[in-house]
Inverse folding.
């Protein structure tokens, strides 16, 4: 989109306040130029703001000291695995801590919290911490979704929190809508996972009354050589359960690695159960029956 040529260079690369532009000598007619967008009252941008991240960036010039993005808005900024229907909604959630007053503006849903930890800052963005953000999602997410987000926070690679931090945050929380649901979900959160689908798979297995599988067990063969680390496993029975996303089928290197990986497991005496998205979505009963049969077939004498 063509940028208004008359604007100072300091204003054409990001969102800016109308008041700041006027201080730099920009006229009201210039601020009404067709190329400028009005995402919020008193703010102008060059580009159209559609996603939550884009609208948060556009709101930064109006983000007062002590104000921070929170709730579902903060969850989107952190990249939590959320239902698509909750993403890029019409309002940004902005919070303050008592006795401050929350903002009131079109496109903004203000909250006044009784307490909050130190907000995280990512460049110019300021948001509720990941663990506190999770503790406020009980009003909009179901149990499985809360556990998926909790697992995401304490995942194996680049975790945003720890189980201890989640527990401390939930214990300290008061007067939070949906807090009982968050407390219930915390009991099912596990560290060290690699994907939301892996979490969903584990919950389907446990929900069917089967024993909870182990996360991230490293399998070693009889010669002491590394075999692999399955997503989920029953160690005594030597059952590996692997969730295979679309890239396992479409990426040639991954496809070849999967063949070698399965043969290594089978050579070491393990059975491998491969799971796809369609199994979870449309055939969970068939899947859990298959796992149950494998557990019965490979039961270790007590």
């Amino acid at each position: 989109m063509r940028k208004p040529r008359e604007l100072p260079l300091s204003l054409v690369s990001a969102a800016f306040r109308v008041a700041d532009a006027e201080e730099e000598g920009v006229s009201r007619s210039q601020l009404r130029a067709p190329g400028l967008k009005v995402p919020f009252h008193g703010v102008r941008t060059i580009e159209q703001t559609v996603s939550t991240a884009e609208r948060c960036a556009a709101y930064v010039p109006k983000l007062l000291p002590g104000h921070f993005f929170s709730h579902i808005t903060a969850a989107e900024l952190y990249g939590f695995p959320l239902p698509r229907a909750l993403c890029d909604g019409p309002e940004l959630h902005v919070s303050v801590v008592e006795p401050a007053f929350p903002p009131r503006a079109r496109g903004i849903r203000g909250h006044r919290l009784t307490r909050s930890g130190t907000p995280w800052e990512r460049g110019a963005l300021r948001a509720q911490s990941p663990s506190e953000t999770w503790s406020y999602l009980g009003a909009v997410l179901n149990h499985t979704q809360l556990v998926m987000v909790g697992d995401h926070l304490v995942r194996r690679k680049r975790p945003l929190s720890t189980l201890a931090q989640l527990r401390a945050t939930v214990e300290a929380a008061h007067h939070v809508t949906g807090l009982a649901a968050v407390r219930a979900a915390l009991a099912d959160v596990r560290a060290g996972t690699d994907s939301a689908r892996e979490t969903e798979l584990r919950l389907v297995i446990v929900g069917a009354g089967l024993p909870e599988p182990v996360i991230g067990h490293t399998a070693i063969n009889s010669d002491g050589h590394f075999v692999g680390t399955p997503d989920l496993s029953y160690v005594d029975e030597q059952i590996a359960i692997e969730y295979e996303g679309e890239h396992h089928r479409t990426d040639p290197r991954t496809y070849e690695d999967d063949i070698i990986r399965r043969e290594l497991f089978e050579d070491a005496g393990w059975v491998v159960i491969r799971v796809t998205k369609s199994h979870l979505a449309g055939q969970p009963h068939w899947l859990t029956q298959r796992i149950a049969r494998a557990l019965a077939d490979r039961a270790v004498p007590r």
Summary: The mean pLDDT is 90.
